[in-house]
Amino acid sequence: MTGRLCAIGLAVVVACLNGPVLARESLGIYAGWGAFRDPVIPRCYAIAMAEPNAAAREYQPFAAIGTWPRRGARGQVHFRLSRRLAQGAQVTLSLGGQRFVLAAGEGDAWGRDEKDNAAIVAAMRSAPRMTVTARDRQGKRFVNAWALSGAASAMDAALIGCAKLQ
Question: Is the N or the C terminus of the chain less surrounded, counting Cβ atoms within 10 Å?
């Protein structure tokens, strides 16, 4: 994706997140990843849209790594998936030769605990790509994928951005 298309895509994803859009401050765009600060909540996050594909979508998929300084939460992994999940569907993240089973609901997935979040964030720093695989409500398997170029820089920018909000 070109830099301009990436920036437009990230702006669309940010507009879809909860809360007033005007409260968010851009901390930078790093390849396909953006970093943002929302001082009203306060929170900071690195975010990227999933790679485009021809498969049907119910949602615009994205991956986000969030920090909430007042809650003491760092490196919280969140995936918005492209389809609603089958009830009880297993959602699997693959990156850097590792697999993680994610907690899931409706069209979202998260690291199951702090240990998984930390391992996922660490793997994202060195892997070139990550994929999430699941089954939708019709029982069809689907995959969302993200290039990880720029992810480490965006995560670092988000951490630094939230250091000022504590």
Answer: C
